[in-house]
Amino acid sequence: MPIIVNLDVMMAKRKISAGDLAARIDITPANLSILKNNKAKAVRFSTLEAICRELDCQPGDVLEYIPGEASNGAAMP
Amino acid sequence: MKCKWTSDNSLLLTRVLTLAVLFLAAAALFCIPIITEWYDAVSEQKPIRTVLNIVLYASDLTGMFAVWELHRLLTNIAKQKLFVQENVTCFRLISWCCFAVAAIWAVLTFWRLLALFVALIAAFAGLILRVLKNLLEQAVAMREENDYTI
């Protein structure tokens, strides 16, 4: 996926723990972990809004576009 | 007494029937030499016992593998594992088994033209299963996207 989530960088800058942030943006720690580890396929605007509000940042601060191949799952014939 | 027919009962019936077909296919392996001997005895055309033996053994074994995959699919459905990659693989393998049987029977058309009907039916079944496989593959992708939307 050419979109990278830099959530851990912003969390470190704001000195906030994963559990704390998960509680503040009202998602489960497991889902926050998926987001942090770049395993998420999509982010809801409501989640992004909550992250930006709590971390006092812009969407561009947590999301980064790195040009590369799109990750389409290889299918078997 | 009122008998209530549920989806669980329906699934159980399908699983029992699948296993019955598997055992019948296994039993048929022992009957193939008798069938081919009988066919050559009643047929007025040139004897094709050896070719027919090969075709029937190959088809039966491929069919048994397909039925086993069907059983795996039904087991997953019973476990509520519906839109998973494993089921896509099952559909894909069953569809390729149908195409393999179609190819085997297509070879038999060199000796008996009527074998073409079996080949066409098997190929059509394989095609339908392939469409279902593509459909399930998209469903799995959609479920994954839904699960990984935060």
Structure description:
The complex is a heterodimer of chains A (77) and B (150). Chain A is 49% helix and 8% strand. Chain A is mainly α and 77 residues long. Chain A has one domain: Orthogonal Bundle (434 Repressor (Amino-terminal Domain)). In chain A, strands 1-2 form a two-stranded antiparallel ribbon. In chain A, helix 2 (18-24) packs across helix 3. Chain A is globular and about 45 Å long. The mean pLDDT of chain A is 88. Chain B has 150 residues and is an all-alpha fold. Chain B has one domain (7-147). Chain B contains 4 helices and no strands. Chain B is elongated. In chain B, 22% of the residues are buried. The mean pLDDT of chain B is 93. Chains A and B meet through helix 3 of A and helix 4 of B.
Number of helices of chain A: 5
For the sheet with most strands of chain B, the description reads: none
CATH fold node name of chain A: 434 Repressor (Amino-terminal Domain)
The portion of residues assigned to helices of chain B is: over 70%
Most extensive chain interface and residues per partner:
A-B, 15 and 9 residues
- The CATH class of chain A turns out to be Mainly Alpha
H/E element order of chain A: EHHHHHE
- Strand content of chain A is 5-15%
Number of domains of chain B: 1
- Overall number of domains of chain A: 1
CATH homologous superfamily grouping of chain A: lambda repressor-like DNA-binding domains
Rg of chain B from C-alpha positions? 19 Å
CA distance, first residue to last residue of chain A: 23 Å
What fraction of the residues of chain B are assigned to beta strands by DSSP? under 5%
Our Rg estimate of chain A from Cα atoms comes to: 14 Å
Q: Would you identify the CATH architecture of chain A?
A: Orthogonal Bundle
Q: Point out poorly predicted stretches of chain A.
A: none
Uncertain runs of chain B: none
Shape of chain B: elongated
Structural class of chain B: mainly alpha
Could you tell me how far the N terminus lies from the C terminus of chain B, measured between alpha carbons in angstroms? 50 Å
